[in-house]
């Protein structure tokens, strides 16, 4: 008999541990589920806090109990007017625009497989700016409602141009990035040239082009809302095929994904989301760059989870940035686009310096 196969009389063999693989896999799944649940709770709580701060903090500080009364039992006081007429539309637009930019950023980074990609890479911001500056200079448009439609049209045309130059139905992530860079450079050159030629256009464009939530009303939001909803529904519907596409074109086709259609529809969703957001508030950069990185810490890279997390976290960033802009240099304000550019620039430098940026 071979020694060790049977215990000696009176000897107790130590218990054999269960196989580590399945148990560890189950523990990992439970851990990931717990992290995602914690992320959802954190995002929801942060959004409530950010919304409350946006309604309460400003040139005039309004206590939260007065904010509550202004929303649900107004009596016609000055605080009621400030909350209902100024800060509530600003908060709602900030939440909607933030969610759109976050979704657009998640889509763009998944589509191009580039952790440094931003929705502006498709020419959305440049196209909107070129259309608005043309409307101001040539047609004399001065209202935000007019800006809205021209910005939407410009964003759609620029995104279509990028798609066509990138290869149309045969576009690849690299071609899209190169085409977007070229279109952005050409359109922003046109914008700068027209502003220098027409000083009135420069004055009118200055406020819109920096990106701001101020002086917008709910009528603008209602006008753009159908486009935002359509872009959101389309983005979430594309989550599963985008997850397959992230494995590579060949793997995606093997899983039954229509690669070309998925890319074209993704570009359409980004155009609807970011075009409407840019039309509402002007070009606000870096939100679509920052938020997907924060969301991945809770949900990983799977677009089915990443996109909803982006839509939840992005409004928090935009509203908090807007609040910071109100309190840094009172009684003046720093526009939200400037604050997000500062924060995004710091993150961009950090990401570029990381050795494993290609694995994000």
From TrEMBL:
Q: Which UniProt keywords apply?
A: Cell membrane, Membrane, Transmembrane, Transmembrane helix, Transport
Keyword Translocase set for record: no
Give the primary localization class.
Answer: membrane
Q: Which PANTHER family match?
A: FE(3+) DICITRATE TRANSPORT SYSTEM PERMEASE PROTEIN FECC-RELATED, FERRIC ENTEROBACTIN TRANSPORT SYSTEM PERMEASE PROTEIN
Location in the cell reads:
Cell membrane
Q: Does the keyword Acetylation apply?
A: no
Q: Where is this region: Disordered?
A: 1-32
InterPro entries this protein is in? ABC_BtuC-like, ABC_transptr_permease_BtuC
Q: Which organism is it from?
A: Streptomyces phaeoluteigriseus
User: By its UniProt entry, which Pfam families does this protein fall under?
Assistant: FecCD
What membrane topology does this protein have?
A: Multi-pass membrane protein
Please list every transmembrane segment annotated in the UniProt record, as residue ranges. Answer: 37-57, 91-108, 120-141, 147-166, 220-247, 267-294, 334-352
For this chain, the family text in UniProt reads: Belongs to the binding-protein-dependent transport system permease family. FecCD subfamily.
Q: Write the lineage as a comma-separated list.
A: Bacteria, Bacillati, Actinomycetota, Actinomycetes, Kitasatosporales
- CDD domains hit by this protein: TM_ABC_iron-siderophores_like
Name of the protein in its database record: Iron chelate uptake ABC transporter family permease subunit
Origin: domain of life? Bacteria
């Amino acid at each position: 008999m071979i020694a060790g196969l049977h215990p000696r009389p009176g000897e107790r063999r130590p218990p054999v541990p269960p196989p580590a693989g399945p148990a560890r896999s189950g523990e990992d799944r439970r851990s990931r589920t717990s992290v995602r649940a914690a992320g959802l709770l954190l995002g929801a709580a942060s959004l409530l806090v950010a919304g409350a701060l946006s309604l309460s903090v400003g040139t005039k500080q309004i206590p939260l109990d007065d904010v509550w009364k202004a929303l649900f039992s107004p009596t016609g006081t000055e605080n009621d007017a400030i909350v209902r007429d100024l800060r509530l539309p600003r908060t709602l637009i900030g939440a909607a625009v933030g969610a759109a930019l976050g979704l657009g950023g998640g889509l763009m980074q998944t589509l191009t497989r580039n952790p440094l990609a931003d929705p502006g890479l498709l020419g959305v911001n440049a196209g909107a700016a070129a259309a608005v500056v043309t409307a101001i200079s040539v047609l004399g448009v001065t209202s935000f409602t007019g800006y809205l439609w021209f910005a939407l049209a410009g964003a759609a045309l620029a995104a279509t141009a990028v798609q066509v130059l990138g290869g149309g139905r045969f576009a690849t992530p690299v071609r899209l990035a190169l085409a977007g860079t070229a279109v952005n450079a050409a359109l922003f050159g046109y914008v700068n040239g027209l502003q220098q030629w027409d000083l009135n256009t420069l004055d009118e464009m200055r406020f819109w082009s920096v990106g701001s939530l101020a002086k917008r009303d709910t009528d603008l939001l209602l006008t753009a809302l159908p486009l935002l909803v359509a872009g959101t529904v389309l983005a979430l519907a594309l989550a599963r095929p985008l997850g397959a596409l992230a494995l590579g074109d060949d793997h995606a086709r093997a899983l039954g994904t229509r690669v070309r259609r998925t890319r074209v529809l993704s570009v359409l969703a980004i155009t609807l989301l970011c075009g409407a957001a840019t039309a509402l508030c002007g070009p606000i950069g870096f939100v679509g760059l920052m938020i997907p990185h924060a969301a991945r810490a809770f949900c990983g890279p799977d677009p089915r989870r990443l996109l909803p997390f982006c839509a939840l976290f992005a409004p928090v960033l935009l509203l908090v940035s807007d609040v910071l802009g109100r309190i840094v240099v009172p009684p003046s304000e720093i526009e939200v686009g400037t604050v997000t550019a500062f924060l995004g620039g710091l993150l961009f430098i950090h990401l570029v310096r990381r050795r494993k940026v290609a694995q994000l």
